Structure formats: structure tokens, C-alpha cells
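Revision sheet: C-alpha cells.
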Amino acid sequence: MTETELFDIQKEVAISPEGVHRLRKGHLWIYAGDITAAPSSPAPIVRVRDASHNTLGFAFYSPQSQIRLRLLSRETQPPTLGLIRDRLRLAIDRRRERLREDSACRLVFGEADWLPSVIIDRYGDYLVLQTLSSGADALKNVLVDILRELQNPLGVLERNDVKARRLEGLEERCGILWGELPPQIRISEAGVKFWVDLLGGQKTGFFLDQSDNRIAARSYASGRCLDCFTNTGAFALHFAQRCDSVIGIDVSAPSLTQAQRNADLNGLKNVEFQEGNVFDYLRERERAGDKFDTICLDPPAFAKNRGSLPAARGGYKEINLRALKLLAPEGILITSSCSYHLSEADFFELLRQASQDAHRSVQILERRAQSTDHPTLLGMPETHYLKCFILRAL
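Predicted:
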């Protein structure tokens, strides 16, 4: 689709009063049930109107998704290529302080940056793009052109190998969109160096959303440390700067191989990585009467949807209960949940129950969220998903 065709917006979608109310409260999504009239053929961007034909804005249109509309503009005039360029430029400008030569950060966080379903991450001289809706995917070539203009990268990669695209009727794709890409990229985070596999790593190559939390948690770490769900060792290597010894546990052998490469890159000899199931490991260490001064829990999302919440609550409570039992007096627990469907209030209550069952008094030292390059948009609770508590067990 050409640039002219993209922004020549002739089609419109009407929404219910409930949908209008949702938009006016600050949300950017309209679901299929609130569509009252739709075009007979799809278009990447459509005009959004109410029952009285008032224009409410313009949105990405996804005819196969339950999230049918993602609002792109609240203006009465159609968006232009200039608007997309301005949105990208502003998003990058907001993160200027994070853009060092070998740093990594999120440049665009979808709805929070008013570019719905568009994710752009920067790893040094390389950019990774995700277009997670039909409308955003139609803009992919446009986005690459603007990013080349604004960032002058050596390569732009797409990591559209995510299940969310299936709900849009889109293929999963992964590959180079422009330029070149070496097998591994070296980045630095507060002095700790990492090798990153942009094609095969988790998410877009690295867990950028925990960056600020890793840096904050490092200042609390001491003594003997256990890092659970260590993945490629990001938390573990930060802790190793301050701890006597660190054990990193993960079920993925390839991730642990990368973790060891990262430890070697930093010249660290006080880190040991072990392959294993975290639940089993915590139970074994408890039976053995082991103690740690610092424990980190950074599990994958246990609750992928609302239906999985009961089982997820049980999983989160168990690992935190076991960790609290393993902590030495005055020990530090860094614990996270990236499950959006588990609210911060629910996570807090699970931690309270775990501390009660462990017979430990616990202080909250910090309540944290995802890094500041992943901002939360008021009116869209979906943009706040990561919860992180730094606790002291007395």
C-alpha cells in the first residue's frame, strides 16, 4: 500500500455510546461489541464517529481482532505522514537521556506514546520494530523510512514473531527490514555489559522493562544471593557487583549459556548458573535449611489471561512464600510480576499472605513498575503491567 493510499481515509466506523464513553475516559481501544457500523472492505486507518455522525478521531482498524479500533488521533482532520513522524520524533526526544552509544531502551511504547500497537526498541546502532495490529503493520515501511531518517541505524529488524499477531489475522515474521545485523549486539546497563541476540532472544532481545528495577535493586543486594528465573543473567550480574556469591537458576539451557557468556564478558567469577525448575529448587533449598541474604524472583507471566488467574495466584504465592522462608534475618527480596491480569493490589495481597504463612515480618522498601521508557498512560490501565516490590524480611 502506497503512502497516498494509507492516508487517503475514505472509510468510517461508527461506535456505540459505550464506546464513545470509553474514548472520552481516555482509553484508546474500542472492542468489536461496540462497533455499530463498519466498512464492507478493510482499511488500515478509518474515521471514528458516533451515532450522530460526529467525528471522534481516527484509528487503526483491525477487522479480525476483538480490539477492533486503536485510536491514533482525536482530531477531526485525518492523520498525515507528518503526524507519524512527529509522534516518533517526540517519543525519541523523551528518552534522550537514555540514548548512550552502547545503551538499550524502548523508543516507542505503543499506546503510551500515541502510536498504538507499535513497539520500537533501540540496541546501540540497531533498532527492533514490532507492528502488532493490522493498521500498524500497514505502516511498517513508513516507520522504517522515518526511523532511518531520525536515528540513522545500521540495521532495522522486525520481531513480529508474537502470538498477538495471530489475533489480527497477521503472519508471524522475524527478519531484517533494512541494513545488516551481527549475530550478537553488545550493550551496557549501568556499567554491566551484556551480549544480546536480537533475532533469537526473549521479547525483542532483552528484558528492557526491568532495567530501572535492576539498577535500583543492586543497591540493596549483599552477601549470598539467589536469582530465580535468571534468563540471561541480567539481575544476577548486577547483584554480582555487590554480593559475595550469586546463584542463577533457570529452566532454559540456551539462556544459561548466554548468561555465562555475559558473566565472562564482565570478568565475574562469583556467579554460578544452574539449570533447574525454580519451584523444585526452592523446595529443595528449604528442606536443606539453606539461607540467602538476597533473593530475586522475576518469573514469566503466570497469568496470560483472566482464566489462568487462579492458578497464577497459587504460583506467585508459592515462590514468594518459599523465598521468604529461605531469607536470612534482614534479608532482601526483590519480587516481580509481569502479568497484567494480576493487579498490583492482588500482588500486594499475595505477598502479605505469603509473609503471614512464612511467619516473617516484612518491610516494603520500594514499590516499583516498568522502566520509565515504558510509561503508563492514564486512562489505559493495560499500559501498566509490571509490578516490582523490594522487601526486607525481619
